[in-house]
Amino acid sequence: MSLDVKSKAILQSAMERGAFDPAFWLRFFLPHWFPSALPPFHLGIVALQTKKVEWLNDPIYEDAHEFLLTEFKYAADPMDPTSTELPVFRRNAAGKIVMVSSDHNNVIVPRGFSKTTLTNGLNLYDCCTDGKLFCVYISKSADHAETQLQNIKIELETNELLRAAYGNLVPTRADVEKWQADQMQLTNGAILVARGKGGQVRGLVYRARRPNKIILDDVEDDGTVESVTERKKTERWFYASVEKAGQVMEGAAGEDWAQADLQIINLGTLLGAECLMMTLSRDPKFNTVRFGAKLRYADPDDTRMLWAYKMSYALYSKERERHRRIGKLAEFTRELDSAIRIADDTLFPSRFIYEPVLRSALLSVSIFCDPAISDQPDRDHTAIVVAGRREKDGALWMLDEWGGLGKTPSEMLDAYFMLHQKWQCTLAGFEAQAYQKVLAFLLREEMARRRYWFVAAPVVRGSKVTKDDRIVGLLSPRYLTGFLRHLRPLSGLESNIADWPNGKKDYADAGASALALLGETGALVIPEEERNKGEYAPVEQVLPPIYSTVNRYITKGGPVADKMRTRYPIS
């Protein structure tokens, strides 16, 4: 590639700026890898991996500052869930962005958000700009790691911009440097080695040099992380081989011959509660930064996305609902929200039972309103839920719902009356805490205005039973036994339950309260045919020893005259 004077000047300027600004370097020398501007979270990862930050103060990156300052955080004490979150990036006294981070970082990123492409680009950047680099790139298998190394080799061999800027860094057969499937030694002194999980890392030495950077890129996969044995092997390998691969001579710090401390960056997608990512997130030596596709996945009112160009809120919501319906919400939450939802330990099933039911088949129908007035994103939602109990067998249904953030009293009353009439409710109630007591007066006024009367019971919550207690106690056992069904998809209620115990709980609490209004009608679980025989019909089945029969009626202890005769056990 022949260059004129102008082109050489441009190339020289790009090299100089690239040495300072790695994000610019990626876009200039690898436009086919990075055709669009890097999102803010990529810029932060670039700074972490290159240990360069001053370039972020360029005005062209100003739009990313708020994200970097507020979203790049790690726990001061990783073992304490209430621990203060410390910023990776902050402003100094002069207002400049600076980075406060250790050499050991654990970065959790959703699946499919270009971790590997970014890592390959930065490995190539380091190889071209740092002749002292000795980096080990580790992936889930040796084949996968070598494939990524091959991608970098192709650029060094064929990228004309790189070759024009940095010369031919590829060694010839006559050179002592190696150019093999699992390693490359460049003519400028940089070394990049590829290893699979479990491969030899400790003991790597070249001309008295040991690795000074290790990049782990999705070192586990779905298959191996499910095995306790494999997880333990991975953990032992990491702490025995990977972490000890560098030069450890604390007393030599500051000496000219001393090698830089080993930098370890683990990037990956969350695969389970006991995967290596989670192990490192509990290690105080590592700073763990966690990103989900939706920045606040537990807050339904916060629609900000990590990288909207990659996944919009609309697509996220569509995919989340799809995974919920097929019973794969735990996998979605783990891989895209970077959070753990252990299906076996949840108090609710991953799927809901949808079954039609006629109003004529329901013995009783209740409606409950949990009002809220604030329109602030972090406040409660107004929620109205309608529930019913079938006469035939006592089975329960969630029939309808209405609600949302910032609903006005008039909107709430309209919905309450509409649902009450639609379902011919036999029971009605509403939460009457503090200002909510006013709803009783509003309801009575509205009844008079509409000439539509019914009894609506105000419910005052005590301090002994919490919202969580009500939801778990009234909903969980009925969902788990399949006794509680849904007439149709109910997005508010189902999202509350799917996000349990995180996120909003207003619809779930209103649903639990609606069930409480239905009361205890447990006898309905006895088949209708048997109930139709009457309470004092003869008993055919064998009774437990504590019960006896007199004239084919059940009694429990004592003289028959002192006991009520009934077909059912007397407590």
Can you describe what's shown?
The protein has 571 residues and is α/β, with parallel strands linked by helices. The chain has 4 domains: 5-249 and 256-290, 3-Layer(aba) Sandwich (Rossmann fold); 294-344, no CATH class; 359-523, Nucleotidyltransferase, domain 5 (2-Layer Sandwich); 533-562, no CATH class. It is 34% helix and 17% strand. The chain has 19 helices and 20 strands. It has helices at 5-20, 22-29, 40-50, 65-71, 115-129, 142-158, 160-166, 222-225, 228-242, 276-281, 313-325, 329-336, 409-423, 438-450, 467-474, 476-480, 491-498, 506-518, 528-531, and strands spanning 73-75, 85-87, 89-91, 97-99, 104-108, 134-139, 179-180, 183-185, 191-196, 213-217, 263-268, 287-290, 362-370, 382-390, 396-404, 427-431, 457-459, 484-486, 547-550, 553-556. The strands form 5 sheets. The protein has an 8-stranded mixed β-sheet with strand order 7-8-9-6-10-11-5-12. A 6-stranded mixed β-sheet has the order 17-16-13-14-15-18. The longest helix is centred in the first third of the chain and has 17 residues, at 142-158. The chain starts with a helix and ends in a 15-residue tail after the last strand.
Helix content: 25-40%
Please state the overall shape, judged from the principal axes of the Cα atoms. elongated
- Beta percentage is 15-25%
Structural class based on helices, strands and sheet pairing: alpha/beta
Q: Give the radius of gyration.
A: 33 Å
Level-2 CATH architecture of the largest domain = 3-Layer(aba) Sandwich
* Spatial strand sequence of the major β-sheet: 7-8-9-6-10-11-5-12
Low-confidence stretches: 542-571
